[in-house]
């Protein structure tokens, strides 16, 4: 079932559930959950439609596990990456000693002076491995991988969270904890 149509629907679904549910007149609850039947009924955008089988396939097979169903598959939400106010009820977790962030060269000057900022998102996203960080950074050009001394940050009192799809989240990464 994986094809350009499914990938396009996945990208659109990500946009709707992370940034703009009002695009299709969808309402999310305070935890970012949307009613599956309502989503399917309203998902008629740019001549795209979706049924439960496609939605289930996308949730189960998305390589980044961007989406999650509740236990009985009546609700769906994005796992992280929201620019809208939602409470994901993430538990604090002790991070690995080092985490990684993929970016591109044009942002290095700002990162060196300001550290990593969440910008329009709710958190800074970090990876447990360089390969994932490379994929993330490579979406905008030649990737530059930053090493984050997350163990030291944690000892200094910075909070970390691990999302359901294993993305490490934090509010900010000061430049002194980054190896360029």
Automatic annotation (TrEMBL):
The gene is kptA. Belongs to the KptA/TPT1 family. GO terms for biological process: tRNA splicing, via endonucleolytic cleavage and ligation. The keyword NAD applies. It comes from the Bacteria. This is Probable RNA 2'-phosphotransferase. Keywords: NAD, Transferase. Removes the 2'-phosphate from RNA via an intermediate in which the phosphate is ADP-ribosylated by NAD followed by a presumed transesterification to release the RNA and generate ADP-ribose 1''-2''-cyclic phosphate (APPR>P). May function as an ADP-ribosylase. InterPro entries: Ptrans_KptA/Tpt1 (IPR002745), RNA_2'-PTrans_C (IPR042081), RNA_2'-PTrans_KptA (IPR022928), RNA_2'-PTrans_N (IPR042080). The lineage of its organism: Bacteria, Pseudomonadati, Bacteroidota, Sphingobacteriia, Sphingobacteriales. Transmembrane segments: none annotated. GO terms for molecular function: NAD+ poly-ADP-ribosyltransferase activity; tRNA 2'-phosphotransferase activity. Gene3D superfamilies: 3.20.170.30, RNA 2'-phosphotransferase, Tpt1/KptA family, N-terminal domain. Its EC number is 2.7.1.-.
